[in-house]
Design a protein that fits this description.
4 copies of one chain form a homotetramer.
Chain A lengths: L2 E4 L9 E2 L6 E3 L4 E6 L14 H4 L8 E7 L7 E11 L3 E6 L22 E8 L4 E5 L6 E5 L3 E6 L8 E2 L3 E2 L2 E2 L11 E5 L5 E11 L10 E2 L2 E10 L8 E3 L3 E8 L2 H20 L3 H11 L12 E8 L12 H10 L2
Parallel strand pairs in A: 1-4, 3-5
Antiparallel strand pairs in A: 2-12, 4-18, 5-16, 6-15, 6-18, 7-8, 8-9, 9-10, 11-14, 11-16, 13-14, 15-19, 16-17, 19-20, 20-21
Chain lengths: 332, 332, 332, 332
């Protein structure tokens, strides 16, 4: 396997999906060892750093990429297998940003309230215990939380000539913010433009489902992934395969539409896997679906539909691509 | 412990929360052994039974109850501990009902489509293997699914003089359809009227999160529960405590409002448990929340916020009520 | 025409649709001269009256009624023709109520903000100029606004054994808060229970579309209406006929569902009036619909679909009922 | 006044806001006489033309532009005054497109229904009577409808480096589909990039509010407009000024968020015009707002907040820009 290492300089960050020239061309089968900056572009470093003073909202969620995948054509399926996600710093940050988040008025859910207080929490990483430490700002509550690294943002260039900020999740992936995007997972994305032009970023040392305040435990991440290409078969919405689960992530508003789309996508996948009629798949899904929310805070909300493979007969998605990639990963 | 057994006659079913005279008065501490009919009132018995022909939509979700809890006053907290949920039949049913469900036009999400085909799936229960059997109607797909019994509908009489059908979930509980309502769980409900007037029903032999088609594996259920009363402390939204988790269930539309309310409710609970400031609780919840949807099909949608106790310092909700009820249950 | 006059005593107010014994039985064709209290139950009388101190939220939106209409059966259509709406006081009130309204966090759109300031505006009525006077509380802005009296709340007992507070709009009508409910209009409501059990209340001396802050220019009202009964023909959602317009009001969440239902209802009405195929009616409606919002603040949001009769061939709704009622009204 | 005439060649159409090189540079004060193709790119010409066969969904809503406005900088306000909208053909078209529209499942409101029938309606324009003729496809219903020309799509390049399809409405304007965008109106748009890069298109010979089926009476249009530039003052959401009204158009999902944003925008405008405190403006708006929906069918829904100037003291928006442009227009 070819291994490509890449750490972007600050001026090389991508801020959008689409609209950026590729930083590298890679062949299917390549292993990428990437460094990604945190969602705050590294600008929140202490509890006294106020988001409104330190952040430039045009420069959040910096992406590492985009990569041009040789041979990828519209209608193809890009497979990104995450071999390893390793915190690249010993600390991470989270914050309440004015008029951003799930339990606050926003620029869309416009209200007449003053913004909530701006606060920044710094989490220290204890690599030995594999925990990050939550410390209350108002009181002496303190608790260790297991590190569970994930990537908030994984996507390709959008369809329809569009260019979208890296804050948005949609059919092209993007800022889905789902804890399912973790080491051991394979993400399948429909290709919209030649070369796919994928990028990754927004590492979270951990995140709850829904990402209530809008920012997870945000930290720079070392990302090892394998790129593969499947001709044809582009799914409408991003899919994730793990050893134990099939996952579909859809992003829209209101939240029920995101959920509907993710369920619809899974009904389609069940049809591909088992030849199930849509109504039978609808019925089966009704009884076995998990539905852990991803985020209810971004420009689109992201809902997850997830099925445990143990509840299903043996199936083979994309010709066994996930198993193959797990085997490749084991060789590294 | 006093043990009260009750199996309603068909004419004793309650179809609403509120508006029905109590069927029994019970003392706090009482064990209830109840039988509940399925959501279809037992009318769907074979794959040839069409919902539109067999069902009377004014008589679905029959409730067993209501029970008048001696001493319960508005502002108090009713605790219902589910000791055991045992399928009362060897089969269960699910169906697509015209213009009802998550991936169909409905009376609210009004569209010009014809209804989806009406289909009924009968699930056989294998008590030895503890599975129900899904059999596709269109093809020969067949799979065993573990029985995971739960109650779709648990509630008290609403506030504000209202009477609501047993199809609706809201602050009073009702048709929340969450898989969290299972044996071993304690449900806390705010009391709105003297005696609380709670009832239960809508047994599911299993259900996925979201309940996509609108009906789970619906079956009659034998329910063993213990009733307790906590003076004061009424939560805004129903809470559930399990050995491993704290859970808040909120129901509204659009789905993001249900999620917001359940997160808001959990922030309040974290404040009660640990004296956390709301913004600190918001931050902590952002990193540890689970958010498994309950239903996206009923008159209100129900969203769940769930926290694993193992992530938190030891806490004691309602003076240790759940632990006490677990001990009581162990004596039965 | 029989004329019945009725002014409720305070203890006779109804607070719900359904669940209340009729205050009078009336024959179809009866003229009712009613007095209705304002939505605040008359408790906000000066700019220093704080809603949180003066209001009991269980006693807002008092209704005058319910009236049992002799001969009304489920499936019938109740026609209420508003002959005259006359302010019954020389002042009216509006207010920002904590966590109630369109541009604030609410009990459903739960957030972590403090409530907006509680403010009360008193409007003086100038009967000669037929205006109410808006005076800014913070500054010296002042403007006369034309009086345009309407009723916020008109409804019948709900279906499905339900009892709903007078704050809720739904298929039974209720707190729709649409400026279309004015003198000269005929409201058609589907009958759900014997006698229909209708009531009216919540007079507004004027209101904008959407009712942003949640309370209009709220004032006691003298209401003259004629009751008529049409056998059968119950519409799903409330309809209003004016000399110039056909109107359908639907109430749901999210707001697009309210809009969808009102459009769907109008497509049905166009089918009744002109025998139009649903897809042709959908197309025609697309080009001629008005869609002035009613309220985006109540427990359900209300959307209006409205068509100017001048754009359509002559039609006759309900056998010319509106024209007949206009003629009857002219005789008073 | 300099007058620039421009009719794009087919290969000159723009399909996005942003991401396209300017077709012309114009000075503030310039009069533009433009031709715009219809939303179907002229491909639906008879009732037998099926959208799924004739349309390329990547090539709908062709834009005439973009124009680089000399001197326009981010934060400035672009004023576009529509002097005249004149149908450029003697016919127009409307259609039901599979899974597109307000009363159908869509790619976002994903369901399991088959698509609604694909139908195309051709409207003949009678210039003398100034009507278009609706003819039912299923039956012999036929009615003349007044021509009320408007532009569905008016916008500038988006902020945040984005490029959006011409099907989307958002803060940059775009496919707002409001009947308020008619001759005599001045549209104010915040400038996001040097030169503003505005374009126009999507002429409608008439359209109802909400645009239920997703397509209005779509026709090629001759557009005469005057471009002006105001330094600074960029509004968050597009504003429209007419002789009689102030209008704010906001676009989001769910629809209540679009409405909230448009109301919030108007409260800001009232503050600019009269120095009103936000809470006083909220109160005043509650009593005088009109809220005619624009579209509930596009990628974002668009809601309108509108105030009749006659209800307000004399005000002057943007230093009297609208009046000035009306005077300029009168000289043409």
């Amino acid at each position: 396997m070819e291994i490509v290492e890449f750490t972007p300089e600050r001026e090389q960050y991508a801020w959008t999906f689409g609209g950026v020239a590729p930083i590298r061309t890679v062949q299917p089968g390549t292993v990428l060892k990437l460094w990604t900056e945190d969602a705050f572009s590294g600008r929140l470093q202490s509890a006294s750093d106020k988001p409104s003073e330190k952040l430039d909202m045009r420069e959040v969620n910096p992406q590492t990429g985009p990569f041009f995948v040789d041979g990828a054509e519209p209608g193809d399926t890009l497979a990104l297998h995450f071999v390893d996600l390793e915190p690249a710093r010993d600390w991470a940050a989270s914050a309440t940003i004015p008029f951003f988040g799930g339990l606050t008025a926003t620029d869309r859910t416009a209200m007449l309230h003053e913004p909530l207080p701006e606060l920044t929490w710094i989490y220290q990483l204890d690599r030995e215990k594999q925990v990050v430490v939550f410390e209350a700002l108002r009181g002496d509550f303190r608790v260790d939380l297991p590190v569970e690294p994930m990537l908030g943002t994984v996507g390709v260039a959008p369809a329809g000539r569009e260019v979208r900020t890296s804050l948005v999740p949609d059919m092209f992936g993007g800022n889905m913010d789902t804890p399912e995007m973790k080491a051991g997972a394979t993400c399948y994305l429909g290709v919209n433009v030649p070369g796919a032009l994928f990028s990754v970023g927004d590492g979270h040392y951990r995140q709850g489902e829904g990402e209530a305040c809008g920012t997870a435990v945000e930290g720079a991440m070392n990302v090892t992934l394998i790129v593969e290409l499947i001709k044809g078969g582009a799914p409408v919405w991003p899919r994730i395969e793990q050893d134990e689960n099939y996952v579909v992530v859809a992003s829209s508003r209101p939240l029920e539409d995101a959920w509907r789309s993710s369920q619809h996508g899974m009904i389609g996948w069940l049809g591909e896997l088992y030849g199930l009629d849509p109504l039978d798949a609808y019925q089966l899904l009704t009884q076995i679906s998990q539905a852990p929310l991803a985020n209810v805070v971004d420009a689109n909300y992201s809902a997850v539909t997830k099925i445990a493979k143990r509840l299903l007969p043996t199936g083979e998605a994309y010709g066994g691509m996930h198993r193959y990639l797990r085997e490749q990963a084991a060789k590294l």
